[in-house]
């Protein structure tokens, strides 16, 4: 069991996946909220059955959840969106915590894109924010996802602000430079977290 859980977050296009993978290369287990969110609505799960009962079979595509169809439905109705969030978010939180407790690396990373927005700081001992300025976010996301910059800015407007994330951070990685500098920052934090994890380990009874 990992003795320390770190929450990794950052805005769209900040490079969370790159940073998470650098920690994984050092043997650190990743618990990814986006992956878990897909798993809890897999075919034949209670969550998907509940969603289908509420919205009908038109939100299915060959038995799988059609996320685009569901998104269109819930964003047209605030009550539907509230209902969906109340169904999915607790399942994701429970699964993340359970997986974190089962992790065997000295510490584990919970990769949670909306950690600040959903106020999930209580799930972790420390919050690590991957930070870049807004102009870089727009350029990187537009280039990566083939979206126009107007759409990217709309997505960013619905996320926590850069300052809100920084205010919630215990640790910050600046991802505005090159991969070598990014790797150096990850290594420094990795060593720091190993030290904290050792201090967090339960004492053996004699």
TrEMBL record:
- Single GO biological process annotation from the record: coenzyme A biosynthetic process
Pfam families, from UniProt?
CoaE
Residue sites binding ATP per the record = 13-18
Q: Which GO terms describe its molecular function?
A: ATP binding; dephospho-CoA kinase activity
The record's section on PROSITE patterns has: DPCK (PS51219)
Q: Where in the cell is it found?
A: Cytoplasm
Is this entry keyworded Nucleotide-binding?
Answer: yes
Q: Which UniProt keywords apply?
A: ATP-binding, Coenzyme A biosynthesis, Cytoplasm, Kinase, Nucleotide-binding, Transferase
- Enzyme class of the recorded protein, top EC level: transferase
This protein's GO CC annotations? cytoplasm
Which SUPFAM superfamilies does the annotation name?
P-loop containing nucleoside triphosphate hydrolases
Q: What is its main location?
A: cytoplasm
Instruction: Show the InterPro entries listed in the entry.
Output: Depp_CoAkinase, P-loop_NTPase
Asked if the record carries the keyword Transferase, the reply is yes
Q: Which domain of life is it from?
A: Bacteria
NCBIfam families tied to this protein: dephospho-CoA kinase
The UniProt entry's sequence similarity note says: Belongs to the CoaE family.
Functionally, this protein is described as follows:
Catalyzes the phosphorylation of the 3'-hydroxyl group of dephosphocoenzyme A to form coenzyme A.
Q: What is this protein called?
A: Dephospho-CoA kinase
Q: Identify the species of origin.
A: Ferrimonas aestuarii
């Amino acid at each position: 069991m990992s003795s320390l859980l770190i929450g990794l977050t950052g805005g769209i296009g900040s490079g969370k996946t790159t940073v998470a993978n650098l920690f994984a290369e050092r043997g650190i287990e990743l618990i990814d909220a986006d992956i878990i969110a897909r798993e809890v609505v897999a075919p034949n799960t209670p969550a998907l059955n509940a969603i289908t009962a509420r919205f009908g079979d038109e939100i299915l595509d060959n038995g799988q959840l059609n996320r685009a169809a569901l998104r269109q439905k819930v964003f047209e109705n605030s009550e539907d969106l509230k209902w969906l969030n109340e169904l999915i978010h607790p399942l994701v939180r429970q699964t993340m915590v359970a997986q974190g407790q089962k992790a065997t690396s000295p510490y584990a990373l919970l990769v949670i894109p909306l950690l600040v927005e959903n106020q999930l700081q209580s799930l972790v001992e420390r919050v690590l924010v991957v930070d870049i300025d807004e102009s870089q976010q727009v350029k990187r996301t537009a280039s990566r996802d083939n979206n126009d910059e107007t759409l990217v800015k709309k997505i960013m407007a619905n996320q926590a602000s850069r300052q809100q994330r920084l205010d919630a951070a215990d640790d910050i990685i600046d991802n505005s430079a090159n991969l070598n500098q990014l790797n150096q920052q990850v290594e420094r934090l990795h060593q720091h977290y190993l030290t904290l994890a050792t201090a967090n380990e339960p004492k053996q009874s004699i």
